[in-house]
């Protein structure tokens, strides 16, 4: 049964007087791998920042289940944020800490588990992303793809219900990017999580996206939504061209 996890209603986003996007309306269902796409500078990262509680809307609402996030009291918001995992573009690992220490951080901060249990959980999360045995490595000792996966292990440390990714495959070779895609699907299934991804990686969008929204910088609003593969035939040529890299169908 489909159940709305995240609902965006009449959302307008602005920096000061400058409107970035207006009148956004879409729903992310539980279990979706939801893609936020569109050309450079259209406001994808800005939308992500609104969804994860970093920027308040200029107008409109963001609902987690039936809770209006930005209208909710701070304790309610904190409880929602506690159930969110975020993987930023850079992976954002602390370079002076080992992988195990990086993954332990949110556990130290948000739980009162004994140290031995935190260590065991950190090793377990690293094993889920294929990094068993790398606990004592520092980020500079491993490849870019492994760093992304370590960042992912940290993002899932607290068993999030919803995982957000900002350009997860940026800077990765196609094989590592494919591996990360497979891992995202695997974790969605094993954690029973919902996934929201900002990306313009076409292979990823078409391979793993179950639903999407397409933002346009010129129109300053969404010009399409739906499963990415269905958008390959969208009446708006901008959408079709984006998804076919200007012409060739990748079906
Ligand atoms: N902190 C900020 N203050 C003012 N303007 C900003 C800020 N962050 C982004 N912008 C502007 O908002 C617009 C949307 O930026 P955003 O980074 O959300 O786009 P994007 O779709 O994620 O772009 P890209 O695909 O290039 O990463 C851009 O014109 C950008 O210059």
TrEMBL record:
Which is one GO molecular function term here?
Answer: ATP hydrolysis activity
Q: Which InterPro entries match?
A: AAA+_ATPase, ABC_transporter-like_ATP-bd, ABC_transporter-like_CS, P-loop_NTPase
Q: What domain of life?
A: Bacteria
Keyword field contains Iron: no
Keywords for this protein: ATP-binding, Nucleotide-binding, Transport
Instruction: Report if keyword Nucleotide-binding is assigned.
Output: yes
Q: Which PROSITE patterns match?
A: ABC_TRANSPORTER_1 (PS00211), ABC_TRANSPORTER_2 (PS50893)
Quote the Pfam families the UniProt record gives: ABC_tran
Domain (ABC transporter) ranges: 6-244
Listed SMART domains: AAA
Q: What is this protein called?
A: Phospholipid/cholesterol/gamma-HCH transport system ATP-binding protein
Lineage start: Bacteria, Pseudomonadati, Pseudomonadota, Gammaproteobacteria, Methylococcales
């Amino acid at each position: 049964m489909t159940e709305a996890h995240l609902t965006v209603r009449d959302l307008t986003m602005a920096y000061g007087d400058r409107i970035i996007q207006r009148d956004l309306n879409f729903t992310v269902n539980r279990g979706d791998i939801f893609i936020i796409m569109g050309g450079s500078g259209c406001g994808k990262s800005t939308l992500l920042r609104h969804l994860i509680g970093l920027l308040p809307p200029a107008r409109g609402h963001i609902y987690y289940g039936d809770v209006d996030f930005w209208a909710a009291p701070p304790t309610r918001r904190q409880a929602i944020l506690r159930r969110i995992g975020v993987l930023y573009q850079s992976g954002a690992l602390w370079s002076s800490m080992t992988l195990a220490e990086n993954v332990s951080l949110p556990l130290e901060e948000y739980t009162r588990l004994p140290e031995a249990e935190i260590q065991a959980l950190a090793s377990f999360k690293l094993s889920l992303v294929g990094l068993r045995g790398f606990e004592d490595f520092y980020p500079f000792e491993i490849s870019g793809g492994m760093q992304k996966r370590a960042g992912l292990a940290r993002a899932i440390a607290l068993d999030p219900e919803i995982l957000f990714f900002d350009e997860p495959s940026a800077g990765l070779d196609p094989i590592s990017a494919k591996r990360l895609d497979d891992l995202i699907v695997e974790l969605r299934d094993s954690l029973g999580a919902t996934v929201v991804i900002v990306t313009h990686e076409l292979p990823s969008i078409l391979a793993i996206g179950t639903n999407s929204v397409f933002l346009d910088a010129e129109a300053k609003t969404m010009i399409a939504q739906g499963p990415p593969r269905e958008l390959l035939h969208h009446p708006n040529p901008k959408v079709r061209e984006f998804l076919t890299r200007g012409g060739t169908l990748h079906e």
